[in-house]
Structure formats: C-alpha cells, structure tokens
Write the structure tokens for this entry.
Amino acid sequence: MKTKNKHQNSGGEVMELARETATLEQYWIVGDRSEPRKPPKDYNYVEELMHLQIELIKMQECVRHNRLKMCVIFEGRDAAGKGGVIKRITDPLNPRVCRVLALATPTERERGQWYFQRYVAELPSAGEIVLFDRSWYNRASVERVMGFCTEDEYREFMRSCPLFEEMLIRSGIILVKYWFSVNDEEQEKRFQDRMRNPIKRWKLSAIDIESRRHWVDYSQAKDLMFAQTDTKVSPWYVVNSDNKKQARLNCIADLLSRVPYQDLNPVQIALPPRQSDSNYKRPKLTSQHFVPDIY
C-alpha cells in the first residue's frame, strides 16, 4: 500500500497534466471564438486555461499573418513556475511559429564574444514568437551573485542593456519581460518536492541548491536590475507565483493584453480526393521492421 502511494505521489504532476490536456482537447472540437471577458469568481482552472489557449492560437495566427516579431522573457526565482507557464503557452501553438529558447552555459568561444551576441542569433524573425526561458539577464542575477562575471562586465551590462532593448523595440520586435516572484516558504516547499520526487528531480541543479544560501543576495541583485532596466520603453511585469495555477492564468492573460491581435477566421479548405492506387503494390509486411505491440 505504501509503495502504491509513493508511485501516485511521484507521478502526480504527470497525471495532472495528462488529465488537464485530455480535458482541454474536448474543447478544441466545439470551441468557438471567445469574446474578451472577466473571469467569474468561481472560475474553473481548466476552462479558463482552455479559453486563454484559444486566444493564444488567435494571437499566433495574427503574428504569423502580419509577420510580427515577438520576444517574451521569463525570469525570476528558481522554482517560481516559469517552466509551467511556458509549457501552457506552447502546448496549443505551432512549434514552427513559437519556440522556446533555454541556452546552456556559454562555450569558451561564446565567452569571447560580445555578451549579447548569442542571444541576438536567437531573436525572432518575421512571423515568429520566441520565449526566452532565462535570458541575457543571467548577467544581472546568477552571474552577478555567484561570481561568474567580473565587476566591469556587470557594470557594462547594466549600462548597455536598456540601450540594447530599446534598439530591439525600435527594430519592430515586441518585447515583453516577466519576473516570477515566489516567497521563501513556497520556494523551499517546491525544492523539497523536487528533491523527493524522482520525476521532478532533474529540475533541481547544483546552482538551484546553492541559491538558497544567497536568497538576500539574489533579492538585492534583482532590485538593482529593476532600478536600471525597468524602463518606460521596456518595463518589467511581476507575476506573483505563490499559486502556480493562478500565475499561469494571470501571465497568459497579461501576455494576450500586450499584443495587438485580432480574430482571424481560417480559410475553408476542400480536401482533394485520394490518388488512385490501382497500379501500386505494397511491399510485404514481412520486409518491414515494426515496433512490437506490447500494449
């Protein structure tokens, strides 16, 4: 019995996501164009997520149709829920239009480049949406706190970052920046969950664990970063993520409000008749390698 409960706890998030996805898919067939509305006080999480994801599809098609360039930055505390929001945004969207960027530690060659260079290479082209799961703000947070950059490199970043972002916006990129904020107790709870749960263990890195020792240092670094980069041209939007599900809905709703999109009715498509196979002979099944039917 204990073993069963252990497995249930380990797979809880997977099962929840599966049920959430299955429930949402029921709406895609009957889902119609929804009008902007204020959610009811007794809202259902999955129903609201479904509504927002349909709006995301409309936004995606508007970005693609009008050849807009959209860049969304997700920053914040470790275990603040950035990945969960990104997943809910990308789930209904076309990966050829909307992609996620999560760069690894810079290589030796990249360390010798202009700091922004490897991020510039990943910026959206016309008709694309790029979601940055961490971004150039690594320099103002983890690199600053953990000593991965020099004082001169840090000061140069703080001076040039607002200019860099203003240049991006003037070039036509829609730049939206989110900071996910989570309180100390909730972060520790999520860290403990990741340590115990084998399905979530991969989310916990050595840097994440070390960050607990530098909670105040990260807070001070974030305050300095906001003071320099929370500008009128490129403001930060703070997401309270103590409650993951509320944070997902609030962030997606806010993102939709930041993008000038319109409803686009899909073009009616007529399915052509299938080509006749009168002269086609299929190869023998025994000549092919099939995946075993073990289910």
